[in-house]
């Protein structure tokens, strides 16, 4: 059954349209289960009726023309219950409803399983027999497994509009297709999409309308010839080390390249209107799918040969294509399967209107970077057909995590009003720049910024930042192809320290691992977030740690505003070892004649173990800073970069709030500085609660700072404590958010966070 399931799934995935995919399903399932009928019903998103979309065994002419109401028949019963219905005689069941014209009256046994995607029932897969008999457990399990595979195909088709308005009499909308993602960075962007992708990766190449077919065809043939030459050179270079059989493998590659059918198919795709890279992707993937469906293991292995050749051809095609920066002649919305910081680094900032990433979550590093730059962003848009959106008009709603394609004039006008309101709010924020962040009753709160780029300095100072609460040193490490030298690091850190002097600058030691990788120092682990990361890496590599600490201390010469922060601390021994090394580095720098002072040292509280050892840690260090992003992740056992569980990641979860409150409670009399530098600090709702708990320093992206200041200056400490008291009684994260939204509206401060019209765009 497993091999059969795999072959059916491969065929469905390779289908060129939804109707073709559904036809494959009903045809193959009917044969595999020896059933007399196999049918698929899909839920119409408007009417909620179950529309017969494909069938083998019933009257095929009825497909697309007949439906069951939401409370009518056995099919809708399966949908309402969201679980299988397996009947020996369907006719005697009280929910049985005969669909006239289908020829269904002959069939007695019935097995229907729901097609579910992200908890939503998309349709029902049904098999039937004339005989009165129950389908056995193996057959039921097979159908359930298959429907789970089918769910992704249906969801994608629904998102692209392929199955919008299924009912026979419905009128297609034709525009305003909406895709749900996760809010990454607030704001609204209206513009055209530009799809970006990593080099030589066939799977992520988008479709794009070709501008000059003849030129693309010529480029394709040149790339083909270049790959032939590469293979001949490789064969000649190592031929003396190979047997005749092994050398024949190169001949196989050359034969595939000389296959006129493959080259001809690519050329035809270009002539039909797709650019060379997109045409190559279509043809290579189609042939790979054919090989994968073959029973012969040797022939299946040829799929990997074909993929390798496709990448080689693509690589040569991309050498002739304009680089990423050259593709932008106007500000655009950047779309990718998985956007990375390095991709953004290749694009001029003034050409980025918005960002959309299929993968990732609101706490991915790209999202954090987007918030720092004030770019509206949606992450985790899993069903977005991103390959089809190059040069397509889009709207990115970073408040609600939605993306609209082919927006109507009415929708554009609605969102343009939000953009105008945002501009007015920015003007209001500008007046707060030089004012202190204090409540109506005089409670002072210090607002610091999180930085990682030299460009962050001016932007942060312009918005009234009082210091740096977190400088991410991994950023300058990530943009290089080797470790920066100690001297290079001195220059980098000096920029940050000088830019904010005499205000304090908290520099975090190298925090790599997890989702932060250095290309020249790969860390491959089965479970990276529970593996070798943060302080664990640097204490294992003293040459990296000591060079970085010495560079930090040297950079602080004459300024004396350096604070050093240690990430990913899980036990007291790590802190004791790091402190000894920092004192040693300080003594070495002092001996070299630098005018330096021993910096304050602190640790990040971001692992549950650290929460329960706060007292012991506070006795060793000068300050504590809570990293709410990782603390939330580890408390809730939710990978913050995984969009499938993004709904479970919530810093307002009662457990997270209780842990944050517990930290304050434990160190209230310890005399250590206490701050929060995670994304929760930059959320005005979170800032109110953290201030009420007793945190006196919040560090955030520079774009969040004006919003937080505006809210804090329009509320009293008494109001904040009353809000905290009310939400700490709640047991659901959603209840916390809803209650805080209501309380902020009653206090007349919700208007300071986002434009009022964002509540009415849907």
Description:
The chain has 762 residues and is of the alpha/beta class. 44% of the residues lie in helices and 15% in strands. The chain contains 26 helices and 22 strands. It has an 8-stranded mixed beta sheet with strand order 7-14-13-9-10-11-12-8. It has an 8-stranded parallel beta barrel with strand order 15-16-17-18-19-20-21-22, surrounded by 6 helices. It starts with a helix and ends in a 16-residue tail after the last helix. Residues 160-174 have low confidence and may be disordered. One of its GO terms (molecular function) is phosphoenolpyruvate-protein phosphotransferase activity. This is phosphoenolpyruvate--protein phosphotransferase. Its cofactor is Mg(2+). Its main location: cytoplasm. Keywords: Coiled coil, Cytoplasm, Kinase, Magnesium, Metal-binding, Phosphotransferase system, Sugar transport, Transferase, Transport.
Oligomeric organization of the protein chains: single chain
Describe the global form: globular
Number of strands: 22
> Could you tell me the mean pLDDT?
86
* Radius of gyration, taken over Cα atoms and rounded to an integer in Å: 30 Å
Number of helices in the DSSP assignment = 26
Low-confidence stretches: 160-174
Query: Describe the biggest sheet?
Result: 8 strands, mixed
- Adjacency order of strands in the biggest sheet: 7-14-13-9-10-11-12-8
How far is the N terminus from the C terminus? Answer: 45 Å
Binned, the helix content reads: 40-55%
Please identify the structural class as seen in this structure.
alpha/beta
Strand content: 15-25%
Organism: Marinomonas foliarum
Cofactor: Mg(2+)
InterPro entries: GAF, GAF-like_dom_sf, PEP-util_enz_mobile_dom, PEP-utilizing_PTS_enzyme, PEP_util_C, PEP_util_CS, Phosphohistidine_dom_sf, PTS_EI-like
Keywords: Coiled coil, Cytoplasm, Kinase, Magnesium, Metal-binding, Phosphotransferase system, Sugar transport, Transferase, Transport
């Amino acid at each position: 059954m497993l091999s059969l399931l795999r072959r059916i799934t491969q065929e469905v995935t390779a289908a060129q349209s939804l109707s073709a995919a559904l036809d494959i399903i009903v045809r193959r399932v009917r044969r595999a289960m020896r059933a007399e009928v196999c049918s698929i019903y899909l839920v119409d998103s408007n009417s909620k009726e179950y529309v017969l979309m494909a069938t083998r065994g019933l009257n095929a002419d009825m497909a697309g023309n007949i439906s069951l109401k939401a409370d009518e028949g056995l099919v809708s019963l399966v949908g309402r219950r969201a679980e299988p219905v397996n009947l020996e005689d369907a006719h005697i069941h009280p929910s049985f409803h005969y669909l006239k014209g289908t020829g269904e009256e002959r069939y007695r046994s019935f097995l229907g399983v729901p097609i579910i995607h992200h908890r939503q029932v998309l349709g029902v897969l049904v098999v039937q027999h004339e005989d009165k008999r129950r389908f056995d457990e193996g057959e039921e399990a097979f159908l359930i497994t298959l429907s789970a595979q089918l769910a992704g195909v249906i969801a994608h088709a629904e998102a692209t509009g392929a199955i919008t308005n299924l009912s026979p009499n419905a009128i297609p909308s034709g525009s305003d297709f909406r895709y749900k993602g996760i809010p990454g960075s607030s704001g609204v962007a209206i513009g055209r999409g530009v799809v970006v992708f990593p080099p030589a990766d066939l799977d992520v190449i988008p479709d794009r309308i070709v501008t000059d077919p003849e030129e693309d065809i010529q480029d394709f043939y040149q790339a083909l010839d270049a790959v032939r030459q590469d293979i001949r050179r490789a064969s000649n270079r190592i031929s003396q080390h190979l047997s005749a059989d092994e050398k024949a493998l190169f001949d196989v590659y050359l034969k595939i390249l000389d296959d006129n059918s493959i080259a001809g198919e690519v050329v035809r795709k270009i002539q039909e209107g797709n650019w060379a890279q997109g045409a190559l992707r279509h043809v290579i993937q189609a042939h790979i799918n054919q090989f994968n469906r073959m029973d012969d293991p040797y022939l299946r292995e040829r799929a990997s040969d074909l993929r390798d050749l496709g990448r080689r051809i693509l690589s040569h095609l991309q050498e002739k294509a304009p680089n990423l920066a050259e593709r932008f002649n106007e500000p655009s919305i950047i779309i990718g399967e998985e956007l990375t910081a390095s991709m953004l680094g290749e694009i001029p900032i003034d050409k980025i209107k918005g960002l959309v990433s299929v993968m990732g979550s609101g706490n991915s590093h790209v999202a954090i970077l987007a918030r720092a730059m004030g770019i509206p962003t949606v992450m985790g848009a899993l069903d977005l057909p991103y390959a089809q959106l190059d040069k397509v008009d889009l709207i990115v709603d970073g408040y609600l995590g939605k993306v609209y394609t082919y927006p109507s004039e009415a929708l554009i006008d609605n969102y343009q009003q939000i953009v105008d309101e945002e501009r007015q709010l920015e003007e209001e924020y500008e007046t707060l720049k030089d004012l202190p962040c204090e409540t109506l009753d005089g409670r002072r709160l210090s607002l610091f910024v999180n930085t990682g780029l030299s460009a962050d300095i001016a932007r942060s100072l312009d918005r009234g930042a009082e210091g740096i609460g977190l400088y991410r040193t991994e950023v300058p490490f990530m943009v290089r192809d080797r470790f920066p030298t100690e001297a290079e690091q001195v220059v980098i850190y000096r920029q940050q320290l000088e830019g904010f002097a005499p205000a304090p600058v908290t520099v975090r030691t190298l925090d790599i691992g997890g989702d932060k990788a250095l290309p020249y120092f790969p860390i491959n682990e089965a479970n990276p977030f529970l593996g070798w990361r943060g302080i664990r890496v640097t204490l294992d590599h003293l040459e990296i740690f000591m060079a970085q600490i010495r560079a930090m201390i040297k950079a602080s010469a004459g300024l004396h505003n350096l604070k050093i922060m240690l990430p990913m601390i899980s036990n007291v021994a790590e802190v004791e070892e790091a402190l000894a090394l920092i004192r040693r580095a300080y003594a070495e720098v002092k001996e070299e004649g630098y005018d330096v002072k021993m910096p304050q040292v602190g640790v990040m509280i971001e692992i549950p173990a650290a929460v329960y050892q706060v007292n012991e840690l506070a006795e060793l260090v000068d300050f504590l800073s809570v990293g709410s992003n990782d603390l939330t992740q580890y408390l809730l056992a939710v990978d913050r970069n995984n969009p499938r569980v993004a709904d479970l990641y919530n810093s307002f979860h009662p457990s997270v709030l209780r842990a944050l409150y517990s930290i304050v409670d434990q160190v209230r009399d310890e005399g250590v500085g206490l701050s929060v530098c995670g994304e929760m600090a930059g959320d005005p709702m979170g800032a109110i609660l953290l201030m009420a708990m007793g945190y006196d320093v919040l560090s955030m992206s520079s774009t969040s700072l004006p919003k937080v200041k505006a809210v804090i200056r329009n509320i009293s400490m008494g109001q904040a404590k009353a809000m905290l008291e009310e939400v700490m009684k709640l047991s659901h994260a959603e209840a916390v958010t809803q209650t805080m939204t209501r309380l902020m509206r009653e206090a007349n401060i919700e208007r300071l966070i986002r434009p009022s019209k964002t509540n009415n765009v849907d």
